[in-house]
Batch of 2 targets.
Target 1
Amino acid sequence: MWDFVGIGTKGNVMNYFSKSYFSKTTVAIRILMLVGASIATPAAAAGFDGQWNVQIASTNVACPNGTSVSIGINNGKVESSNAMMTASGHVADAGIINVTLTSGIKRAVGSGHLSATAGSGTWHGALCSGTWTAQRI
C-alpha cells in the first residue's frame, strides 16, 4: 500500500504525500471504507452474542487474582453487564475478541479467542497482567 521508494534520495517527503495517490477523494473513500468495516458486524460475529462469565487471573502476586466479571456481547459488540465496570470492545467473525474493562480510574485491555461456548486470552493493565477464561452463560 505504501511505496516509500525514493523518498530518501529525493529529500522532499512532503511532495511525495501531495501526489495524486493521496488526493482528497482517495483519502475520503479509504476513510469511508474503514468506517464501514468497523460498523458492519459480520453475521458470524453475532454468533457469539449473549452473556459470558469471565474469570480473570493475574501473573503478579501483588495484584488481585480470581476475579469474575459478567459481560454481554450484542451484534459482536462487547457491553457491560455490571454498573461497577464498563466493558467495551468487539468480536470478529472468527471469534477474535478485543476488550477494554474500566472501573473508576483502573483500566485493563484484553484480547483472545472465543469459541461457541468458551474462550481464553491475555490482558494487561498499568501495573498488572495475566490471563482470562470465559464461559457462555
Note: The longest helix spans residues 24-39.
Target 2
Amino acid sequence: MNNAIQTTRLPRQSFMAYPFRIGKTGAAQTTRLGHIRNQVEQVLFTSAGERVFRPEFGFGARAFVFEPNRSQVWELVRNRLLAGIAEALAGEIDPQTLKIEVGAPAGKPEQLLVQIEYVVAALHKEEHHEFLV
C-alpha cells in the first residue's frame, strides 16, 4: 500500500496579456495571477459605457481626477470598485476576501491611492496591489 500523499495541481495556462500587444511569437502571454491583476486594471481604468456589449463594465478612474480628494469621495470610489471588481472577477477570487482601501498617500494629498487585496480562489493565494490615480 502506498501512503504517499498525492497533490493535484492546476494545469498551467497562459492568458493574453493586457494591454494587448503582438510580438514575434504572437500575442503576449501572462500567468493566471498576472491575468487577474490585468482584469483589476481593466475595471479600474475602463469607464462605464466604453464597452459596447458591456456598458456597465468599469469603474472609470478618469472621472475622479478632478474631484476633491476627501473621505466622501474615497467612500464612493471604494463602493464602486467593490461592486465592479466582485462582478468582473466572479469565480476567480473569493469575494469575501476582497478588501479595498482608498485614500491619499502620505505627503501627497493631490493623489488618490487605491489598495486592493484578495485571495485567488483556485490557488488560495493572497494578492495585494496598489494603484495611484
Note: The chain has one domain: 15-132.
